[in-house]
Amino acid sequence: MTTMDNPADIIAILKDIERRSQQRIAGLSQQDNMEGAWTAIGFRLDNLHLLIPLGQSREVFPLPQQITPVPKSQPWVVGMTSLRGDLLPLIDLNLFLQGNSSPTDKRKRVIVLNHPEFFTGLIVDEVFGLKHFQRQPEPADARQHMHLKPYLQGRLYQQETYWHVFSLLKLAEDPRFLNAAA
């Protein structure tokens, strides 16, 4: 091991650490840009694992405790909440898609739709965070999940789990979703 008696030795070691760090960062950014690499937000509805492309979500946050019901709305419209001073409608995505709502627990999250015309929060059972894949999604196989077929864009297989790519943009174009009044 090098002794640290001489300030020039310390500076040389620090420069070497900086050089190696920059090389590592350059290698990571090249790896991130590999053709076929894909990143999305993973979430769960019941036992179904889904992905949304990063650009389709503004943010994710825990289910708020303060939710105001909306009278004369569809059952899947849970209510309104305030998000930094803006009113955010909350939709139970599981109830909308499958007709049943999952029990409320601490893992539930709200995914805010990133759409120029909609400021809407979708309640999901759990969010797994960013999921990284080394290839692009393959075509969707919606035979098992016919209720999701209009929204599925593909699927990926990782760690013994099929992840279905769910399009929030297709959801936002669905006339049934747009008609929240009962």
UniProtKB/TrEMBL annotation:
<dbReference type="InterPro" id="IPR036061">
    <property type="entry name" value="CheW-like_dom_sf"/>
</dbReference>
<feature type="domain" description="CheW-like">
    <location>
        <begin position="37"/>
        <end position="177"/>
    </location>
</feature>
<dbReference type="InterPro" id="IPR002545">
    <property type="entry name" value="CheW-lke_dom"/>
</dbReference>
<dbReference type="InterPro" id="IPR039315">
    <property type="entry name" value="CheW"/>
</dbReference>
<dbReference type="GO" id="GO:0006935">
    <property type="term" value="P:chemotaxis"/>
</dbReference>
<dbReference type="GO" id="GO:0007165">
    <property type="term" value="P:signal transduction"/>
</dbReference>
<dbReference type="Pfam" id="PF01584">
    <property type="entry name" value="CheW"/>
</dbReference>
<dbReference type="GO" id="GO:0005829">
    <property type="term" value="C:cytosol"/>
</dbReference>
<protein>
    <submittedName>
        <fullName>Chemotaxis protein CheW</fullName>
    </submittedName>
</protein>
